[in-house]
Write a structure and sequence with these properties.
290 residues; alpha/beta; Rossmann fold; 2 domains; 6-stranded mixed beta sheet; 6-stranded parallel beta sheet; 9 helices; globular
Amino acid sequence: MADGFLSQLTGSFAIHADGNPTVAMIEAAYRHAGLGWRYLNCEVAPEAIGDAVRGARAMGWQGFNCSLPHKISVMQHLDGLTETAEVMGAVNTVVGRDGLYVGDNTDGKGFVESLRTVVDPVGKAALILGAGGAARAIALELALSGASWIGIASRTAERGQGLVERIRSSSRACAELIPWQGTLAVPPGVQIVVNATPQGMYPNVGQALDLAVDSLGPSIVVADVILNPLTTRLLHDAERMGCVTLNGIGMLARQGAVIVKAWTGVSIDAAIFTAALLGAMGQSAETESA
């Protein structure tokens, strides 16, 4: 709770922070719970992440989120990691505990919970586009949730192979590196495609992935972790090919409930987060699935 006029501070470190509606979601949850806490979106350049963490310490922040491109680089500035963050090799949430900053990762759990609203990943073959922080979390959580095959499409062979090896050592899923050179075609038998890259994210909303659209089909679920815009170029193309599509709203809303509980100790229904996100973006609840 707020102490007089002093609020407990939390926030987000990212680039393109002006397009991140997380602040609307978190602050709505704080108001709903009657908490005198605040959440601030902060524009932080890649080379300044260490300074941002030191500034948060100096101001007594209770925690913060990290978005692209800080999910991996922030780890060297923290006091510890949860087991989940260690396995994922990336951090999206930092929690203040007894004066220390501990990194956690809620990306994967939030994504899988959202995915289950349209398809059960058990026994499915999934293609992940990208091998960065979000891709790591999603790929590993899918593997731990019962996906049978995980393909990692990466333009950087070393990073992609590293994620493949992590999946193999952490789960029973088969994992394979899919070199992304030129236009990528979705391999036969893939049932779930996930864009875990920033391609098409605000402000580059018309940017297309180098993906062969005609390799998509009605039997494939296509998900995009991008939140702004709600319907990316990829999702537009996938809808045109008859795919079931899933935008980033559900993933972020479910993460929000976990994050606020970690910071404040208060449980808040994920529906509060979803409604706030959609309201901030001028949408209705029906648009959670693209």
